[in-house]
Amino acid sequence: MEILNSDAIVERLKQARVYTILTGAGISAESGIPTFRGENGLWKNLSPHELASIEAFYRNTAIVNEWYRHRRDIIEKCTPNAGHYALTEMSKYLPTFYLITQNVDGLHQRAGVSDVIELHGNIMQNYCIRCGTRYNVQQFDEIYEHASRHIPRCDCGGVIRPDVVWFGEALPAEALERAFQAAENAEVFLSIGTSAQVRPASDLPLIAKKHGAFFIEININATMLSSSADLLLQGPSGEILPKLNRDLHRIISAN
After folding, report:
1. Structure-derived torsion over alpha carbons of residues 22, 28, 29, 32, reported in degrees to the nearest 10
2. 120 labelled catalytic
């Protein structure tokens, strides 16, 4: 069954040269990674500011680090799903392909996309808040296990923290600039598995649409952006994206 069954939509996608993708927690939820705002989300029984703010980190460094180690353990046991791999396939044949993600799990990279614009950082990386030295998971764990009171410190004496964006912090300037540019340049913009409740990521589809992009939303539930979508595909991205990939590949190959 084709999901692109309108001649007008097919023609629009056939002519597009720049595809920009935004993914949120929904695409990774299908790999078993809990979302933050869903029924079984990570914030269901906890205040975000207890574990994901700079104030919490300074107040309860060991607890915050242990919680992020727990999250990394969950992620390491999960694997990319069909939705991730469908996007990887798209990246190989679409003329220009940008992938922006709000996720910090690195599953897009594990699925084979080499250039991912990570708006909220990457949980598998850490850095010293004093000198900026970066540490991967293995390096961090080695320091953590031998650290006094499980508070890992860099050789310079600075505390090592997860390389993720916490509440109240600005998004990485370079990633944000690239994301806005990709949205402005988009001729087709796909928003996949995002709740559309977190700015500035939720602004990107509207920016793309303002600049003339054809806006496709893929989500299990309707969002605040659904009424603005030119094409709304409701359902699990792990089911819809492989079908979309098949249809797009046929369209592009025939172009």
Report:
1. 180
2. yes
